[in-house]
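$ run holo --ligand "cobalamin" --emit tokens
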Amino acid sequence: MKIGLIAMSGVRVRTAELAALGVTLPGFIRRGKVIASLPSLGLLTIAGLTPPHHEVSYIEIDDLPDLQSLPDFDLVAISCLTASVMDAYKVANAYRARGIRVVMGGLHVSSLPEEALGHCDAVVIGGAENAWPQLVADAERSRLQRCYHGATAGVFEPSNYARPRFDLIKGRPYNRATIQTSRGCPRGCEFCAASPLITRHFNQKPVGLVMEEIQSLRREFPEPFVELADDNTFLNKAWGREFLRALIPERLRWFTETDASVADNPELCDLIAESGCRQLLIGFESPRAADLGEIDPLGWKQKIASRAHRVVDTLQSRGVSVNGCFILGLDHHTPEIFPVIRDFVLSSGLAEVQLTVLTPFPGSSLYGRLEREERLLGRQFWERCTLFDVNYRPARMTVEELESGLRWLFTELYSVEATEQRRRTFARMSRQRGEVSMQTSLEP
Ligand code: B12
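-- output --
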């Protein structure tokens, strides 16, 4: 069969003023440009799971093209996130109108399979592992079922695992590529809409397998900038040390998301710096522990909130920049939170900052709670699930106050001056310890 793997790609923001602001704010637009060019690791993994006698093509769709111009296949597999699912449905409908079978999967589809089945022939709930090979065999015999369930445990065991097909993107102009070292996270954050939506367990890839993937990526992209597509890379500190020791000889530049507990482990931090890590993205969510109640049911983030400055200092003094993430519109937030976050960012010396609004993605615990509390603004607001558009009624401010506070904070923290100031502070912090890396930029 000829199988078309279609990724709904690109970054998205609906609120016009924010989109316009993004064009002029260097800190924001720089990160936007850098991340926007990532390929879909999910579909490259699916390509790896496909028996070799099938011909697979990998296509990305950012803005919807003329749907008649899309190439023909025997089977089309579409991957999308919530923000792009409505576009994905249009692509699916167009293919089905031509009599071409369409399969969908990913985080949104796994949360709302019935909705997706209104637009496609079959869905995979969960990861593609342990589902895709059967699905392809069924499609080959024209016996496609409506619903397949992927593995949620043992995802990286040999019976389920396949190496992503990086050869499919060879020569394309990506400025970075993703490798996944783990799937899932046990921290239980209420807003989480990442891989815990597709796996009930924390799955860790053996270090040897990660290194093989890095080698395989390097055959296509000799000097890659690697972004680890994990939710929380260094949950397991012993695994982390083993991985980083293996990574050092590779002399890679890399980035990942993890939690603040890395900073409790000086040896791990030394290895992170030594192995070429340019930046760690860490969710502080709010500077005040008291704000974190609802979103942190296990109390873990509340415990470390008072140590946030030390976390930044521990990593940045080693030359690893920290991208601190803050979520605006938590239930304890009043309009006073905006200057509080600005002051925290400035006083901590954070090299980079990510500001987003609380977003009820379907499938998340947050969505369930806000739905029960009748605080969701409308139904099927999927195109607004961008992390920048407000889709719910905040508890202690109006929607307008949240939107204007976000715009204010954007201009305060993503201006040329603020961005330069953060770079200088980071350079000073890393110099103080005599570390080598002055590189603050995520750009390869
Ligand atoms: C890389 C990445 C991107 C890349 C590439 C996305 C892509 N096409 O895969 C880019 C830069 C384009 C991107 C953009 C955005 N992203 Co993003 N991104 C990520 C990131 C960091 C890693 C995703 C990843 O590679 N996972 C690993 C792969 C292996 O997993 P997977 O894609 O889920 O695929 C598996 C299964 O889901 C399944 N599967 C997936 N697709 C399909 C399709 C079929 C047919 C089948 C059978 C199975 C299947 O099989 C795969 C293997 O098991 C995650 C955060 C994280 N830490 O995970 C956020 C994340 C996915 N992004 C997120 C968001 C919000 C966005 C944006 C809306 C941001 C914005 N404002 O623009 C946009 C939306 C883009 C769009 N067009 O929809 C949210 C998604 C929440 C949600 N439920 O929708 C996440 C979870 C981050 C977060 N803060 O919560 N993103």
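-- notes --
DSSP finds 16 helices and 14 strands in the chain.
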